[in-house]
Amino acid sequence: MMNTLNNQVIIVTGGAAGIGGGITQELVQRGATVIAVDVNEEAGTQIEKNNPGKVIFLKGDVSQKSVADEAVNIAVSQFGKLTGVVNNAHVSRQKPLMDLTEDDWAISFGTGFNATLNFMKSAYPELKKSQGAIVNLGSGAALQGSRFQASYAAAKEAIRGLSRVAATEWAADNIRVNVVCPLAFTAGVKNWKENFPEDYQHVVEKIPLGRFGDPQHDVAPIVAFLLSEDSKYMTGQTLMADGGDIMLR
Ligand SMILES: NC(=O)c1ccc[n+]([C@@H]2O[C@H](COP(=O)([O-])OP(=O)(O)OC[C@H]3O[C@@H](n4cnc5c(N)ncnc54)[C@H](O)[C@@H]3O)[C@@H](O)[C@H]2O)c1
């Protein structure tokens, strides 16, 4: 394993469990220090304990601007810099478009779009100093317009639009901004597989590489690449970490 992220200090939102947990683990294995921001205290405490001195758990709701500021302050006060941000946390409810309430829309845009924007803005002055990188999480469901995903898809595509504009504006500061759309076997997907085994099978059969990805071993290396020097000539891009499920043109 190449330690391509040595000396990096990276914030991962939703970084205690699921895909974010896999990203936190992989970034640490590649030499980074991670501030994992999450509402899940049990998972956060555990991942901090498992990675002494390399993971700092910050308990907080990413939709609060103060949490973004606090995460950046921890990076700077404890490690002297911030070199990357991964905006991964995002909560939404799946319903037919006409059934979505104001609260449903607010949850998806609050934890998805607003949180991403706030973390990007809070991190900007430090990323400018470190010539750092941002990775935002998008979704194949948003690209495809999957049913019952209106509030989620709209927030995810708003994140991609924001990412492209920031990539253009912040290129002058040498801050790169890219998007990763994952497909990974998380607790939520496991639950869905158990409840709807035929639907699950149908989706798996359509994935060219024939399986859902592993958060740490399939998705996180692509995020790590976008945070590393190896991708220094890439910005504003969307990379599909999805076994070929969607092939962008
Ligand atoms: N699982 C997939 O296959 C898939 C597919 C496409 C896109 N995505 C995207 O990847 C990202 C991660 O997905 P996941 O399936 O691991 O999600 P998840 O629901 O498992 O949550 C990830 C983490 O975020 C934390 N979290 C939730 N709300 C939070 C909040 N308000 N503040 C701070 N932390 C919070 C959770 O506690 C959890 O640890 C999301 O942006 C998701 O939309 C996932």
Q: How would you summarize what this structure contains?
A:
By secondary structure, the chain is an alpha/beta fold. It has 9 helices and 7 strands, in the order E-H-E-H-E-H-E-H-E-H-H-E-H-H-H-E.
Describe, in plain words, how this protein is organized in 3D.
By secondary structure, this protein is α/β, with parallel strands linked by helices. The chain has a single domain (9-186, 214-241), classed as NAD(P)-binding Rossmann-like Domain (Rossmann fold). The protein is 49% helix and 14% strand. It contains nine helices and seven strands. It has helices spanning 18-29, 41-50, 65-79, 102-130, 140-144, 150-169, 187-195, 197-206, 215-227; strands spanning 9-13, 33-38, 55-59, 84-87, 133-137, 176-182, 238-241. A seven-stranded parallel β-sheet has the order 3-2-1-4-5-6-7, with helices on both faces. It is globular, with a radius of gyration of 17 Å. The mean pLDDT is 96.
Q: What order do the helices and strands come in, and which of them pair?
A:
Blueprint: E1 9-13, H1 18-29, E2 33-38, H2 41-50, E3 55-59, H3 65-79, E4 84-87, H4 102-130, E5 133-137, H5 140-144, H6 150-169, E6 176-182, H7 187-195, H8 197-206, H9 215-227, E7 238-241
Parallel strand pairs: 1-2, 1-4, 2-3, 4-5, 5-6, 6-7
This protein binds nicotinamide-adenine-dinucleotide (NAD).
